[in-house]
Amino acid sequence: MTASTIAAPAAPRGHAHTARGYARTFGALLARDLRVMRRGLLSFVARTVLQPVLFIFVFAVVLPAIGYGAGGPAPGGQTETFATILVPGLVASGIVLQGIFAVTTPLVMELSYTREIDDRALAPIPVWAVGVEKIVAGAVQGVVAAVVVFLAVLFVHGPGQAPDLDFGRWPLLVAVLVLSSLLTACLGLLIGTVLPPQQLSTLFAIFIVPLMMLGCVYYPWDALDALPWLQITVLANPLVYVSEALRGALSPGVPHMSEVVALAVLVVGTLVTGALSLWSFTRRLVA
């Protein structure tokens, strides 16, 4: 059976037993995806932590040790170490990378070569709910990636270069982790429904690399006031708001974007991207 022959399941009638059936099916699909992630946990951890650990090792251990300035105090009279600026950015990059790739890569394969998505579309829940399940599964992987990256980079630093982090704003930290994971999973679903499989390899070169380099991972957005055109341009990058919101939660002493602005953008971005991705996902399977 092809996607074009799959009919949309009937809309829920609002009965309690129907809702329970939907919930059980949704839970089964989610459990299946999380089981797949658990079975590949070593691979998941390796590809999640390797880049951030190597990056903080070079910039917070090697460069200070050999006398270069990347590990020194921040410019503008700030006293924070480079690791204090870098840790929230690396956690943000871990969330974004895993949130996108955890949804996009398997979805592109399911829509093209394996056609596994046909089995999911035949599950006794609306097609859009299958897309929601993929968003939730991707968001869970984004949160796990954030924890793994944080633990990996927290203790990698040279003498006197330890990050100065504040965990007193944990409600803000939790809100940022959940919102940013949902946003990136929605973005992954949207990309997965529009990206041809033969162009999957170009996703990294033309989308991920600019996203990372201009996402305020390695420098705070406030420091870009020396380049006003760039400070405005990078506002189109969703990673900027994740990085800055995490700096507001973990290292409030570093000049950063207003937490209210960053959270508002994450909320609106999640709602808009989520609606677009579910519309594109449903159209791809039902039309």
From TrEMBL:
This is Transport permease protein. The chain crosses the membrane at residues 44-70, 82-103, 135-158, 170-191, 203-221, 260-281. Pfam families: ABC2_membrane. GO terms for cellular component: plasma membrane. The keyword Glycosyltransferase does not apply. Keywords: Cell membrane, Membrane, Transmembrane, Transmembrane helix, Transport. It is a multi-pass membrane protein.
